[in-house]
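Field reference: sequence -> structure
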Amino acid sequence: MKTWVSGRRSHRGRTLGAAALLVAAVAVPAGAASDAPAAASRAAMGGTARNVILLIGDGMGDSEITLARNYTVGAAGRLHMDRLPMTGAYTTYAVDEHGRPDYVTDSAASATGWATGHKTVNGRLSKTPDTDRAVPTILELAQRNGLATGSVTTSELTDATPAAIASHVRDRSCQGPGDMQKCPGDTVGRGGPGSIAEQSVAHRVDVLLGGGRSRFDQTITEGPDRGRTVTQLARQRGYQVVTDSEGLRAVRPGRPVLGLFAADGVPVEWTGKPAAAGGTAPQRCVTSNPERPAGTPTLEAQTRKAIELLEGKRAGGHDRTDKGKGKGKGFFLQVEGASIDKQDHEADPCGQIGETAAFDRAVKVAREYAAQHPDTLVVTTADHGHSSQIVPLEAEPPGLSATLVTDEGGRMKVSYGTAPAGRGQKHTGVQVRIAAQGPQAHRVLGVTDQTELFTTLRTALALR
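Structure field:
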């Protein structure tokens, strides 16, 4: 019999002693890093953070995490996200226009929850559910307090999760100047702030990395910037615009960076056969994707570069237009692994696991940085649950299923049953994991709500 710990064989029967922590609710998982007890103790003490790195696995519920763990490091192994010393759960429901619970959220309403501390209706971004009034976001507060800010995603930069921290629109579909049909009151012509792409540039977020080039290449049709594309507007406002790994490696702190690495969402890293009615033959995932262009930076590489740029910005490499941003104020960075959700919708377990593994490598980058900068709060969580389930091999699910051969040689059956074949799978309304390390990390313990994450971030950074 083999015991698997973090993807490596260990001696059979090996155990790790329980840590005597001042917070009894903290569980140190098997295979956790040796400094986990000390990290947990530090996190329980509160304090103030200089930096925050918030990592969002879109649609990354407990099933999605378990699938990736089982497949990549083994059932007894641990992912990087498993090693965060403080772990709890939070609720994810949205509300209707009267404030009543809508039990299954979309990504727009859920992202609004942690971005603003307020719940809203599905489809709306950082606006109230009843009066459609803009509510300040954690990124905006960070900027007002002199911090550098960044957003990284594998989706379009105008998609719901990154959009919630950098824009306010009535409907999440209003991504570019040509997409404003559902947001007439937000158009520049009516005195509004414009599309999500326009607002993201206008906010002058220091680092914007992801997909969505087609949205930024739309032409602005109203206001003083009429006739320019949003990309041209970004360049005019000082952004360094890059489109591949080489360009990303070359940029330096001093001016804001807009990285657009795909016309729409960034292609996934892994491929395989999607789930099917009646199941699939056992398969190994293909850890490459011929549709992913060479030169597309990984989420890990984007996260590493974003931290480098933001740290350089705060070290004093800012331009003269950054009035009021003092030296050494720290940064706020949000990183999204978006296509865990998108592959779940497609009932594609290999694509989904590959994106979870890619997200986990970004968590590793964040934790490595925090190990050298203990005044950094790292939080990893999801926006909502999703549809994949691990079921017995002998099960005959009425929906779609696939069987995978894991890295440790076992077979694992994955079932999707929230929509019939040919239609996208649906979100679920379950609570999801939230885990943290660093100043104020103890606030994630127990069962909280998404809106309380906003308070945790604001308190950690002491934002006024």
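Note: Confidence is low (pLDDT under 50) at residues 1-34, 317-326.
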